[in-house]
Amino acid sequence: MSKTILIVDDSFSLRQTLAIALREAGYTVQEAVDGKDGLAKLDGTKYNLIISDVNMPNMDGISFVKAAKQLPNYKFTPVIMLTTESDPAKMQAGKDAGVRAWVLKPFQPPALLDAVSKLVMN
């Protein structure tokens, strides 16, 4: 059975690029347009990994991760932040919220897939 990854990003083109790379690597992909939409997708569906942007309208990535980690089904789901944000304070806030990896955009699909394969939950 393939692993399912939730992508939370307000950029349609980025979600498309990421989804293609992940699907080609054999993953099943769900997409959300911002943190609020991402939370709505955390409805009991089993996700093996979440990839989220930091800067999004309605609910930013760090708030989304904090909220996701409050849900029993997603408390241990690994999260990768894929972002243009390189501010150490933001990175620390992400880590404190439960983010496991921080990948800067523009990303290289092989490097991202490497991080995904290391963190994806069984």
UniProtKB/TrEMBL annotation:
UniProt signal peptide: none
Domain of life: Bacteria
PTM sites of type 4-aspartylphosphate: 53
Domain called Response regulatory: residue spans: 4-120
Keyword field: Phosphoprotein
Statement: the UniProt record of this protein carries the keyword Metal-binding: no
Alphabetical list of InterPro entries matching this protein: Bact_response_regulator, CheY-like_superfamily, Sig_transdc_resp-reg_receiver
Protein name per its UniProtKB record: Response regulator
